[in-house]
Amino acid sequence: MREYLLTLFVAAAVTYLLTGAVRRFAIAAGAMPEIRARDVHKEPTPRLGGLAMFGGLCAGLLVARHLPVLAEVFTASTDVQALLSGCALISVLGVIDDKWGVDAIIKLLGQALAAGVMVWQGIVILWLPIPGYGTVGLPPTQGALLTIAIVVITINAVNFVDGLDGLAAGMVCIAALAFFGYSYRLWFGYGISAAAAPTLFTALLVGMCIGFLPHNLHPARIFMGDSGSMLIGLMLAAAAVTVTGRIDPASIAAQNDGSMSFTTHKLVPVYIPLVLPFAVLVVPLMDLLMAVGRRGWAGRSPFAADKGHLHHRLLEIGHSHSRAVLIMYFWSGLIASFTVLISVRPERRPIVYAGLGLIAVGLVVLMLPRFKPHVPTEIHGVVPPRYRRLGRRKSAANEPGPRIVPGESDGVRLNGATAAPGPQSSQEPQDPSPPADLPAGWGARKGDRGL
Fold first, then answer.
1. Could you read off the pLDDT of 68-127 as tens digits, one per residue?
2. Taking 60 as the threshold, does the pLDDT of residue 26 lie above it?
3. What are the angstrom distances between the C-alpha of 219 and each of 49, 59, 118, 171?
């Protein structure tokens, strides 16, 4: 676990540090598209945030390559090389789209090409575990087509949900955390080596999202753009494929006296192809299906942008930007936790139930648009102003402000700042009008002449 935490921290730190430099580069390169009708931000914001996330991915892989346990992932299979190749291709496609724009069909073909490169290098579904029946092997062609379809669907689901500040990065981070916990247990709990690669992939994905979120939370200083949303969608799909199509239920049944019922219980999330990743991404996937159906019913292209997504509807009913994002977070966390609960032992389920209850309560509270949470006055200095109690603001507003008397050295307020006080003088302020004994044409100041 320590090696995973180190890798996660490196990916987060590098992503965080690179994002500022990428933001300056995006501004200089002009990667700041004009505001569209469906956008909710008020001013042009630089994109290309996916470049920083790709840098965090490369740094995390470089560190993992030299760690004792994680080094086995690089030598046991070509999954890491396949992931890096696919991520490089999808990042190039995303950068081109962020800067110049790419037609929807060309973008779809590029996503399929990146998925095909990963399939060619070994990330492919080999068989499907079916409950009560065992494993069903897939011919190479069917396995390749199914893998490409899953990757493309996941990429577009994440891309469609990237409509509010911090929304896509936070939801993918929650999904990756749930998937990390499940795959880590398969590897170290049951010795399934096929789960080693997805465990590393999801740890890196969590680090990349955590490192990017401080720059992307509302109000965002930079957007991840398609270069980021397609990158994290591809990584999540790659992790799902590597664990789903490589697990043999017989290997777990052999460790439990051949009990297929126990094995069935443990492998429920991966019986139907990619149930676990689809479950933790159920909110963006539902948004994707609704968008396609809505646009098709209206006679428009499924790729035509609009303002009918779930996050847009949350804004329309009165939720603020930040609260709409939190509601989507809570929904994702609730569904992801429930999915992982299926594989948890009965004696440990009360802890998960307690967590699910807290998430549900938080979701109910957030769904009330008029509810405004406040924090104790002792920590007002470390929270945003919107969470401070109104009573303190009113009392501060009723206090009389400092009274500036002419001739005193209190300074002059300019745009909220106070100018440095000048030298004090004991003389009374003088009348700026010219003395009566001056000849006509002389100004009020010494040396000024009228024209």
1. 989 989 998 899 999 999 999 999 999 999 999 899 899 999 999 999 999 999 899 887
2. yes
3. 15, 28, 36, 17
Tens of pLDDT along 318-334?
A: 667 777 788 878 877 77
Residues 6+ apart with CB under 8 A from 41: 35, 165, 219, 220
Give the DSSP per-residue string, 5-28: HHHHHHHHHHHHHHHHHHHHHHHH
Instruction: Report the distance separating Cα 295 and Cα 302, nearest Å.
Output: 6
Largest Cα–Cα distance of the chain, in whole Å? 116
Query: Which tokens belong to 157?
Result: 């689901």
Query: Beta strand 127-130 with 134-137: parallel, antiparallel or unpaired?
Result: antiparallel
**Extents of the domains making up the chain:** 2-294
Contacts of 258 (CB under 8 A, 6+ apart): none
The answer to whether 366 and 326 are in contact (CB under 8 A) is yes
User: DSSP state, 413?
Assistant: E
Alpha carbons 245 and 151: distance in angstroms, whole number: 13
- Dihedral sign computed on CA atoms, order 89, 92, 97, 101: negative
Q: pLDDT value at position 315?
A: 65
Contact 112, 106 (CB under 8 A): no
| CA pseudo-torsion sign 163, 311, 360, 277 | negative
End-to-end CA distance of the chain: 84
Q: For the CA atoms of the chain, what is the radius of gyration?
A: 29
Taking alpha carbons only, the member of 362, 354, 361, 314 closest to residue 337 is 354
276 falls in which pLDDT band (50, 70, 90)?
low
Q: Ramachandran region of residue 180, left (φ > 0), alpha (ψ -120 to 50) or beta? A: alpha
Angstrom distance (rounded) from CA 168 to CA 155: 11
Neighbours of 351 (CB within 10 A): 10
User: Which is nearest to 158 in space by CA: 102, 99, 232, 218?
Assistant: 232
**Cβ–Cβ under 8 Å, residues 199 and 4:** yes
